[in-house]
Amino acid sequence: QVQLVESGGGLVQAGGSLRLSCAASGRTFSNYAMGWFRQVPGKEREFVAALDWIGSTVYADSVKGRFTISRDNAKNTVYLQMNSLRPEDTAVYYCAAPQTHYLRREAAEYAYWGQGTQVTVSS
Fold first, then answer.
1. How far apart are CA 4 and CA 97, in angstroms?
2. CB-based contact 113:3 (threshold 8 Å)
3. What does the pLDDT look like over 59-100, one tens digit per residue?
4. How many CB atoms lie within 10 A of CB 72?
5. From residue 59, how far is each of 28, 75, 80, 117 by CA, in Å?
6. What's the angle, vertex CA 72, arms to CA 79 and CA 20, rounded to 5?
7. I need a labelling partner for 109 at 20 to 30 A (CA). Which of 18, 32, 47, 57 fits?
């Protein structure tokens, strides 16, 4: 059973930074892609970033140049470094894992999800 546990959310002022972490367990972490999504009440879950098993990455246009996804296979952990945060980045952020090592952007292609961590950016 794959388990994903996020941490690192919180309240930050606009222009600030946060780093989210997601600890994974239950399978060989290094063999699979990972992703981050976010969701605000009343809206669909939105793709943020993903990386594959060899470290190739893809980002939503809204976060490109500000957010960086990375992984530490020795720690079974994926990170989302968020810089230059804006109020519109406020959301619950979810770590997710697909059943493949290829990059995926659609939430429906992810089999496993964390519980989410709240990020609030004040103006």
1. 8
2. no
3. 999 999 999 999 999 999 999 999 999 999 999 999 999 999
4. 12
5. 24, 23, 11, 19
6. 15
7. 18
